[in-house]
Amino acid sequence: MRPIEAMRDFSKTKRVVIKIGTNTLAKDGGIDTAYFGTVAAQIKALCDGGRHIVVVTSGAIGMGAGQLGLAEKPHEMKMRQACAAIGQPLLMQEYRQAFGRHGIQVAQVLLTAEVLSNRKTYLNLRNAIEMLLHLGVVPVLNENDSISTAEIGTAFGDNDRLSALVASKIDADLLIMLTDIDALYDKDPRRHPDAQPIPAVFEITDQIVRNAGGRGSAHATGGMKTKIEAARIAANAGCRIVLAHGRAENVITRILAGEPVGTIFLPRRKLSNRARWILNSRPAGTIQIDDGALKALRNHKSLLPSGVTGIEGDFDAGEVVLLNSAAKAVTSLGSAQLRTLAGKHSTEIKKLLGPQHRDVVALPEDIVFLDY
Questions:
Q1: Which DSSP symbol is given to 100?
Q2: Which of 101, 118, 178, 182 could bridge across to 245 with cysteines, CB 3.0–4.6 Å?
């Protein structure tokens, strides 16, 4: 098999996350029932082949806005939450009817960023999805926009980031991102007629990020930059990502068949499940450390209080924090304790805080660097 074919050999792929964007689901500003049917038929074929499928969907706010007769998605938080509350059951009704015609049960799973950042609730979510897949059910995930405490569209980024986090956390082999553009281009094709599609991405460089276009259209909040960030997250899980036009004929089954559809992103490293949770959790604060401590961490050493130069924010022991802007870590000590111990030798920890405390700030296995 040639290298280009091997990149798209999904014959052994068992677990797939499919993200469907707002613009892909809608037609002429309304719900496109026929499109839901085509998606269900393709996923039925994958399920019959023994694959586990998870859908991450957008569209609740847009459908709610359409139901209220709004020309554009509202910007005011309360109205957006109201639109999400109106649109979410409409969205799930479409999925239930479309998949029901093929004898497939679907399950609604609504998420907030806090659920994925908390280790306990994340594990509960993972177990729930595992059981649904075991039962032959297709989970349909969406951001819980109607109660989200973060500004809607910033917690996950039009579900692009959410789909990558889900793919990472359930050990998916492939993430398919269906959008209203057919590939990643070397420049924004809406502004540059000579833009060329990129068939494969081996490394997400700064140049690729700079070339990415802006935000989506009236009812969408994501853009190409959020999709690139999502690809980076999934790649850290060793997951391949295919970005393709959701309206292309039989696009899902063609991708799994290995056809050169859209752009494929190849992973560069595969992190453990715990490391991925650390990397993708929202940091509760920042621990500033000196160059010597940073060098020691890169040599797989523990972070000691002697290397701490400052603390930003308030956090408890066991929470995920940033180390400068270079890494994330699960801290063994809270911010109040660290302010007392910063710059001091490890032997002073137990003298100051008691014998039950560790003499390190973070262990090597609880530290994950942000770069590759």
A1: H
A2: 182
